[in-house]
């Protein structure tokens, strides 16, 4: 999964448009993009979108944060639509995942869904306190599928006046990004890069996405359909990377009992083999 496109939960028109694109996943949003008075209506519309399933996309629902006391109401409303996953905003750590997982177990059983099938992706860096919970996601639940870092709400939590300049995030946000990446790696789940908010700057989007892939992120969250193709292409391995990966895999296949090998004048070992398989999407 490379691209996860947010769609407002109260806009079937935008959902239909998003469904025509090539995003790997659509995140139907019941949180920030829906004002409080429209949330009940949005829950019903979201359920209809889930049941419609117009394309091959994975369908996630971003529910409201646990501290709003709306999370369980959101889950009860949408689970009959059998979403592939839930996005939990403002997550504070593994205990939040366990709470949502407990609710999902009951709601899956009630909806005739295989218990455990619904995945959870956490937006894990939206408050200052959440940074200190990043190490608690490892082993918290088999449902956990990804950790996404976010800068917008974190800025408000920090009381900052600016997040970035010259196309570069300032230090607190780079720290949150890097710690989220490491937390996801430790938990063996997908690290998901934050949204890009300069809608028309596609060159900047490509640069940021390539940097994310370089550092180890496997997907990016998006807020506009025209970002999808740019992000999908940026996450594809280059021809040079494919060639290198194929050579590494072939070298170890020819020498199955060797822990280290010499390839093109360089020493390679098992971490290189794992990296090569990741590039080619092999287990």
Automatic annotation (TrEMBL):
<dbReference type="InterPro" id="IPR015813">
    <property type="entry name" value="Pyrv/PenolPyrv_kinase-like_dom"/>
</dbReference>
<comment type="similarity">
    <text>Belongs to the HpcH/HpaI aldolase family.</text>
</comment>
<protein>
    <submittedName>
        <fullName>Citrate lyase subunit beta/citryl-CoA lyase</fullName>
        <ecNumber>4.1.3.34</ecNumber>
    </submittedName>
</protein>
<keyword id="KW-0460">Magnesium</keyword>
<feature type="domain" description="HpcH/HpaI aldolase/citrate lyase">
    <location>
        <begin position="2"/>
        <end position="225"/>
    </location>
</feature>
<keyword id="KW-0456">Lyase</keyword>
<keyword id="KW-0479">Metal-binding</keyword>
<dbReference type="Pfam" id="PF03328">
    <property type="entry name" value="HpcH_HpaI"/>
</dbReference>
<dbReference type="InterPro" id="IPR005000">
    <property type="entry name" value="Aldolase/citrate-lyase_domain"/>
</dbReference>
<dbReference type="InterPro" id="IPR040442">
    <property type="entry name" value="Pyrv_kinase-like_dom_sf"/>
</dbReference>
<dbReference type="GO" id="GO:0008816">
    <property type="term" value="F:citryl-CoA lyase activity"/>
</dbReference>
<dbReference type="InterPro" id="IPR011206">
    <property type="entry name" value="Citrate_lyase_beta/mcl1/mcl2"/>
</dbReference>
